């Protein structure tokens, strides 16, 4: 397999002394793992919805509020 890198990207990789082949291999591994995980998450969500049903608007609003509060708490903890 051959992979094309635009000239600017190739130049930057070489100027930093990086091995393009190793970088590309790792990038492909990461992308494949990400896609497997996303697929597994979608499958789990489908199974969960089949088991418990679609949330009603009140449940959705409650979950969104909870997620927002948790995000704010995480932001404060990170500061």
Description:
This protein is an all-alpha fold. The chain has one domain. The longest helix is centred in the middle third of the chain and has 33 residues. It starts with 6 loop residues before the first helix and ends with a helix.
Task: Describe the SSE topology.
Blueprint (H helix, E strand, L loop, with lengths): L6 H9 L4 H33 L4 H22 L1
How many individual β-strands? 0
Number of domains: 1
The amount of helix comes to: over 70%
> How are helices and strands ordered from N to C?
HHH
Radius of gyration: 21 Å
Main sheet properties: none
- What global shape is seen? elongated
Structural class by helix and strand composition: mainly alpha
DSSP helix count? Answer: 3
Low-confidence stretches: none
Give the DSSP E fraction (strand runs of 2 or more residues): under 5%
Mean pLDDT: 95
**Terminal residue distance:** 46 Å
Oligomer: single chain
Brief summary of the model shown:
The protein is mostly helical. The protein has helices at residues 7-15, 20-52, 57-78.
Q: Which features does this protein show?
A:
elongated, 79 residues, 0% strand
């Amino acid at each position: 397999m051959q992979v094309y890198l635009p000239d600017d990207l190739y130049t930057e990789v070489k100027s930093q002394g990086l091995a393009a082949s190793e970088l590309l291999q790792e990038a492909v591994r990461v992308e494949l793992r990400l896609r497997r995980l996303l697929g597994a998450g979608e499958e789990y969500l489908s199974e969960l919805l089949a088991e418990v049903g679609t949330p009603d608007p009140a449940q959705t609003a409650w979950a969104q509020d909870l997620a927002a509060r948790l995000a704010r708490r995480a932001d404060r903890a990170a500061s």
